[in-house]
Amino acid sequence: MEDFKSGFVSIIGRTNVGKSTLINSLVGEKVAIMTNKPQTTRTAIRAIVNRKNSQIIFIDTPGIHKPKTKLGNTMIETAFGSITDVDVVLFLIEATSEDIGRGDRRILEKIKEAKKKTILIINKIDLVKRENLLKLIDLYSKEYDFSAVIPISALKKDKIDNVLDEIEKLLKPGPAYYDVDEYTDQTLRDLAQEVIREKALKLLDDEVPHGIYVVVEKMELRKTKNEDDIYDIEATIYCLRNSHKGIIIGKNGARLKKIGMYARADLERMFETKVNLKTWVKVNEDWQEKDNIVKKFQK
């Protein structure tokens, strides 16, 4: 029998390149929330892939962007910090790029400093012509000696197994760090908070989303009269301003009701049990600059 391998793999890239879509495709479960808004991921989320001869622990990191708040700085530190602590780096870029932009250049410099085994993943290949893709591969290959270069479409789950195979080649023999049935290190409470935030992000106007965070105040499992399991979840969506509070709640509470409805449906699928979800909205002005709040996002 082959030696069992294990290791930690960081997925790093600019905002909105498809890191969360990729990690969910690799794991086959929803562990990272996905929206079309930038800077959706705020902490380093661990996701576990168990294969016949290996266990791969992925770390999905916040997207690289120009920070404007303490929260933004924390997100950048989390992302770059992950490079030094892993066995393999997956550097995700967009196939639509024509050159190496400022954000990608910063990531490249950090990878060069760390001298890590790195696989270049070129996402969204369905959006470009073959010759453009070849030019991009050539451009990046001159910058760093990548262990592999894999063009993919994370959304269409195209070439996903190739990514896992290449990672496995780079790992050293080691133990399984997690049980075979685990696919994330997030608690059910973490997952509930993130799912509620995801639904809010998808339903809110552009100026509001990054000014919110969600706290699950109560999460209890009980039996119904019919002896079925049900989770009672009470959550608060915090925002920056009173005007945002009104937008989140919506006319006659319609938007908040929709956020709760969509979140409950997702949570029932994930938890495989009924969920009774209640949500509130409160204002916490300038929370993105408050150390006691920002430290919640440090991982």
Structure description:
There is one protein chain. The chain is of the alpha/beta class and 299 residues long. It has two domains: 5-173, Rossmann fold, CATH 3.40.50; 188-297, 2-Layer Sandwich (GMP Synthetase, Chain A, domain 3), CATH 3.30.300. The chain has nine helices and ten strands. The chain has helices at residues 19-27, 70-84, 102-114, 130-141, 160-170, 188-203, 242-249, 254-271, 291-294, and strands at residues 5-13, 45-50, 54-60, 88-94, 117-123, 148-151, 172-173, 213-223, 229-239, 274-283. The longest helix has 18 residues, at 254-271.
Q: How many domain regions?
A: 2
Strand content: 15-25%
Order of helices and strands: EHEEHEHEHEHEHEEHHEH
Overall pLDDT score: 80
SSE-based structural type? alpha/beta
- The rounded distance between the terminal residues' Cα atoms is 36 Å
Q: Name the CATH homologous superfamily of the largest domain.
A: P-loop containing nucleotide triphosphate hydrolases
CATH-defined topology of the largest domain: Rossmann fold
Provide the helix percentage.
25-40%
Number of helices: 9
What CATH first level of the largest domain would be assigned?
A: Alpha Beta
* Low-confidence spans: 33-43
C-alpha Rg (nearest Å): 20 Å
Q: Could you give a short account of the major beta sheet?
A: 7 strands, mixed
Question: Under the CATH scheme, which architecture of the largest domain would be assigned?
Answer: 3-Layer(aba) Sandwich
| Strand runs, count | 10
**What would you call the shape?**
globular
